Amino acid sequence: MIAKLLLQNLIWIVVMGALLFVPAGTLHWPAAWIFLGTIAILGISCGLWLARTDPALLAERLHPMMQSDQPADKKFMLAFGIVALIWFFAIGLDRRYHASDVPLALQALGWAMLVLSTGFVMWVMRENSFAIPVVKLQTERGHRVVSNGPYAWVRHPMYSGIVLFFVGAPMLLGSWWGEAMSPLFVVLFAIRAEIEERALIAGLPGYADYTARVRYRLVPGLW
Known about the structure:
It is globular, with a radius of gyration of 18 Å. Helix content is 69%, strand content 0%. The chain has helices spanning 2-24, 30-53, 55-61, 74-97, 104-127, 157-172, 176-203, 207-213. It contains 8 helices and no strands. Helix 1 (2-24) packs antiparallel against helix 2 (30-53) and helix 1 crosses helix 4 (74-97). It is mostly helical.
């Protein structure tokens, strides 16, 4: 399982690097190397932590993002993948044409947001062993409603943490083009939350009562 974790992380880093450096037309992009190095370190560290604390969750998270038992979610995953590709490409083109001038202090803030996003997602996974990347009921794993930790504030804290990544990454990479696209990911995760809740209300005992207790989906006090 550790070998699969390392291989998947390597593949993701290579793919993200290509999506940034090819449209940028240069490898001389310090912020992109910092971004990729940070993602590599955080991804491997998080995976090794899961291997020690919750190997069943790690095994689930290493499965393919498209599975046969997630019919309502496949269209979302396809749309998300397309938007993410365009987002990376736009950030790379921004670098090629030097269209953005992001202050160093804001780039440092973007890096801090990446780290904070990962830490928050790790907290979510610590509280919820069923926090997998696909929408499906995990009856074979004793799927149950989780309402402690960040789930006491919002119903989809994993998405909240990931949105923080999509806001921080373009800031670190020095791209206002990428930052301008960040609201698209908020919309996408709002749609994903609706898809997930329909599946959980229909198939997970107690989830409807949980939605009545915890009113907000992504941001406490807002939505």
